[in-house]
Amino acid sequence: MPQTQAEEEEGDVVEIVTTTGDHDVVDEGHFTSESAQILIGEIMGSNRDLENIKQNINDVQNKLKSIIDVLGRV
Question: Is the pTM of this model over 0.70?
Answer without folding.
Answer: no
